[in-house]
Amino acid sequence: MKKLQLFLAAIVAVAMTSCVKFKTEATVDVEVTKAGSPAAGIQVYKFKDNGLGPGSTLYKSNATGNATTNAGGVAHFDLKSPDDLDPSDVVDDKATFYFCTYDAEDTRNAIVTVSVKTGDKLTVKLDVPEGLVNDSDE
Q: How far separated are the first and last CA of the chain, in Å rounded?
């Protein structure tokens, strides 16, 4: 009886550890430029497509992550399982992500759409306009 309990406890422990895998499944580097030059210190926000398309990116509070660009204008994102992608040993997952920047009034001013699958190491470009982009600013 004791062996059976130990065996069941081992199975439960293995099952629980295999369900919680937070490992990097893909990476995306977002190269941000402004007027053709790398833009350092820019906040880039990550959104996973939840079926609503880019409309979910209108408010940066919907973002699932963010990163600041380095001196070379690159914001690095590690897409992890199970939050961003399903664990690679279960399913070969593919997802759409949006990477956005916002102006001083929190209005989205640049967006890039990226289709990412498990194992990808992608670099995308995002050109940020100068100044505000609201109609009232013209």
A: 79
Contact assessment for residue 104 and residue 132, using Cβ atoms and an 8 Å cutoff? yes
- With beta carbons less than 8 A apart as the criterion, state whether 21 and 91 touch: no
Report pLDDT digits (tens) over 49-81: 988 889 999 999 999 999 999 999 999 999 988
Task: Please compute, for residue 19, the number of CA atoms within 13 A of its CA located in the half-sphere on the CB side.
Answer: 6
Q: Are 48 and 79 in contact (CB under 8 A)?
A: no
* Beta-carbon contacts of residue 19 (< 8 Å; ≥ 6 apart): none
Phi, psi of 28 (to 5 degrees): -135, 125
Return d(Cα 64, Cα 16) in angstroms, integer: 25
pTM of structure: 0.75
Q: Minimal CA–CA distance to 128: which of 110, 111, 102?
A: 110
